[in-house]
Design a protein that fits this description.
By secondary structure, this protein is of the alpha/beta class. The protein is about 60% helix and about 10% strand. Helix 15 (about 670-680) links the parallel strand 11 (about 655-660) and strand 12 (about 685-690). Mean pLDDT is about 80; it is low at about 590-600.
């Protein structure tokens, strides 16, 4: 990699677009010109395009001062732009281009733009690329006026930063800082995720309990529906069958009753006919008429009795319902029973009468049995209205009175029959048959009335059951009615099971079905956050491992490169001074001051815990016993710095090195030595020398001259010395 071309426009004194072409390969280019011509602006431009942010090093107070400010004859520029072209055919730069073009543009508004091969990038991308290629805008890649002496007067700690770049560990430090920033961001994200998890976790637990109850609720509800299906289906089919059977019996009995009524009418007609023929006595006719009248009255009363009984039966069935004893009532009665037992126990003593104790226990047991009976069979007692009971009682008394009268008249008729037995035997035989048929009719009517009462009861119970089914089963009612009846059903057991299941549902209470959806959404969010927490934790672990690996690489690279630089520093120092000794020495810090006894071995600090805190420079020119570099003269410090820069270039050469008047403090003999060292190092890197020194200019392949025009803008002239020598020799 080497510097091919530098383009400037609007940067400092270079108002016009100016291009500097550099010879291919590792050669020397000199830039010369009078003071104030702007030749050092070339070094500033290279440093600026490579990302320099320090206005002090750029010899400016604020960023926009690098934009050409104009003159009396020329307007100011709206922006400053510098592009540097680097040959990357050896792929030293970590980009897939054979030529790397880095461009920086600054508008007068203060907006900064960076481009890599015309693609907009961040400054961090530029710095990492330069660090990987072992050069940058600072340290030994671009050495400006005054900077050559700054390395020597810096503190050991400040020199350490210089040697970080000189030893090629800057790329590791940039990667480490990027990893540190990423680690901080990841740890912040993990803390946020943990906070969210802490917020969601209690809600997940609460929703899970509700969902579990809802699942239990659904299971109990399914069992209840199954039990209700069997229970109500069995009861309904049984009542329906009873209704059908009773109806068939009534139909049969009514047919028989109609036949008997026809027989009675037939016998009555014959009796009346014979009565006229036989001349029955007036007294017998009167008794017979009275008898018939009583029979009719009795029939009317029996009808009233039937309808009244049916009315009472319907009232009882409609007003009798199965009710479940409430949980609160059960608990209250249990507390009362427990209180009775506790009072009995507290009143016991050695003199307690056994019979009295037995009586109290029996009383408590009776209460328990009664409560259990009411829980299993919670039937309410219905009081029939008094007017219905009174009316029925009156009817029954009237029937009894008429029966007595009928019995009395029948006795009289029998006596008269005996009297007229021989005379009217056929007549009385017919009368007896007629009376027997009437009795048979009355008996059958009573039986039909009883059957009608029974079917009315069954029908009322069926209606009551259907109302209960409508209340508890709703739309399931028709499905249960249409299902075939089940066999071998224990009604009492099913009834107890239904009451128990309803009680369990009452304890669970109503839970919103949307809870399942809410739980599912919350669980999905919780699982996502938990997976994020696991991923972030793993990422933190990996980042810490990467940082530790970078620390190891940094230390190994630094130690190896520093040893070589130290050896080369002594070598070049001896060459420049014609003798003497110089060395570099690492200063160490107390390890105990940088570590904590309670520090976690996995913890990562923002800055690596370095044992090395700085670099000391020791220089002894020939004939002197000085050790501290601040005791050297200006020329000696300049040569010591040049020796150090040369050592660094020899060990870890940058693709190119810009030296801005670093030889200004050297005398003629030392300038010659400096030029010889540069010639020795030219096979390692490309040199751009900004100088006034003839010895330095003499070793250049290309010479650029910079002058200042009357419009305040720098102008550029170029000369290839090899071509110039050829023209002179001709």
């Amino acid at each position: 990699m080497y510097l091919q071309r530098l383009e400037l426009q609007g940067f400092k004194s270079f108002a016009n677009k100016t291009t500097l072409e550099f010879p291919k390969g590792k050669k020397i280019t000199s830039i010369v010109g009078p003071n104030g011509s702007g030749k050092s602006c070339v070094a500033d431009a290279i440093r600026w395009v490579l990302g320099e942010q320090s206005m002090k090093l750029l010899r400016a107070k604020k960023g926009t001062e690098v934009v050409f400010s104009g003159s009396e004859k020329r307007a100011r520029s709206g922006f400053a732009e510098v592009s540097i072209y680097l040959d990357n055919s050896e792929k030293r730069g970590n980009v897939p281009y054979s030529e790397i073009v880095i461009t920086r543009r600054l508008y007068r508004s203060g907006e900064n733009e960076y481009y890599l091969n015309k693609n907009r990038v961040k400054l961090q991308d530029i710095l990492l690329l330069l660090a990987q290629a072992n050069f940058g805008q600072r340290a030994y890649s671009v050495i400006g006026q005054g900077m050559i002496d700054a390395v020597l007067i810096q503190s050991p700690r400040e020199r350490k930063d210089f040697f970080d770049e000189a030893t090629g560990v800057k790329q590791f430090q940039i990667k480490r800082m990027a990893s540190i920033n990423k680690l901080k961001a990841t740890e912040d994200n993990l803390r946020q995720v943990d906070v969210l998890l802490a917020e969601v976790r209690p809600r997940i637990k609460g929703l899970f309990r509700q969902v579990s109850k809802l699942e239990q609720h659904d299971e109990i509800k399914d069992r209840l529906h199954s039990a209700e299906h069997s229970y109500y289906g069995s009861l309904w089919h049984k009542l329906n069958n009873d209704f059908i059977v009773q109806k068939e019996k009534i139909t049969t009995q009514e047919k028989a009753l109609n036949q008997i009524k026809e027989d009675v009418a037939k016998f009555q007609k014959e009796f009346e006919s014979q009565e006229k023929e036989e001349g029955v006595s007036e007294e017998l006719l009167a008794l017979q008429a009275k008898y018939n009248e009583l029979i009719n009255k009795k029939n009317i009363l029996r009808e009233k009795e039937f309808f009244n009984k049916e009315k009472i039966s319907n009232f009882k069935l409609k007003n009798t319902s199965t009710t479940t004893i409430s949980t609160t009532q059960i608990l209250v009665e249990l507390e009362n029973i427990a209180g009775d037992y506790e009072r009995m126990v507290n009143s016991m003593s050695d003199n307690t009468d056994v019979s009295e104790l037995k009586q109290k226990l029996t009383h408590i047991l009776e209460k328990i049995k009664d409560l259990n009976k009411r829980i299993k069979n919670p039937k309410e007692v219905v009081n029939v209205p008094e007017e219905l009971e009174t009316l029925l009682s009156a009817i029954l008394k009237d029937v009894e009175k008429i029966d007595n009268e009928i019995k009395n008249i029948q006795g009289q008729i029998n006596q008269m029959r005996e009297k007229q037995k021989n005379e009217q035997s056929d007549f009385f035989s017919l009368q007896r048959k007629w009376r027997d048929k009437i009795e048979e009719k009355n008996t059958l009517e009573s039986r039909v009335n009883e059957l009608k009462i029974n079917i009315a009861r069954v029908e009322t119970r069926k209606e009551s059951l259907e109302e209960e089914m409508e209340t508890f089963l709703k739309e399931r009612k028709e499905r249960i009615i249409s299902s075939p009846p089940q066999e071998k059903i224990d009604i009492n057991k099913l009834e107890n099971e239904i009451q128990n299941l309803r009680y369990q549902l009452e304890l669970i209470g109503n839970i919103d079905p949307e809870t399942i959806k809410e739980y599912k959404e919350a669980k999905e969010r919780y699982d996502f956050l938990e997976s994020q927490s696991v991923d972030l934790t793993q990422a933190i672990k990996q980042l810490k491992e990467i940082i530790k690996e970078l620390d190891i690489q940094t230390k190994e690279q630094f130690d190896k490169a520093f040893k070589k630089i130290n050896d080369e520093f002594g070598k070049f120092f001896t060459i420049l001074f014609g003798g003497g000794k110089a060395r570099l020495e690492l200063t160490e810090t107390d390890k105990n001051t940088n570590s904590s006894e309670n520090e976690d071995e996995d913890s990562i600090n923002e800055k690596p815990e370095e044992v090395i805190s700085g670099v000391e420079i020791f220089a002894n020119p020939p004939g002197k016993k000085l050790s501290a570099v601040n005791m050297l003269s200006g020329g000696e410090r300049a040569m010591t710095s040049i020796a150090l820069i040369s050592a660094i270039i020899s060990n870890n050469p940058s693709p190119f090195v810009v030296l801005d008047e670093v030889d200004a403090a050297l005398d003629e003999s030392n300038s010659i030595r400096f030029a010889e060292i540069v010639k020795q190092l030219v096979d390692k890197t490309q040199f751009i020398l900004i100088t006034h020194n003839r010895s330095t200019m003499s070793i250049a392949s290309v010479l650029y001259g910079v002058s200042m025009g009357d419009d305040g803008a720098s102008q550029l002239l170029s000369l290839k010395l090899e071509e110039a020598e050829g023209l002179v020799n001709r």
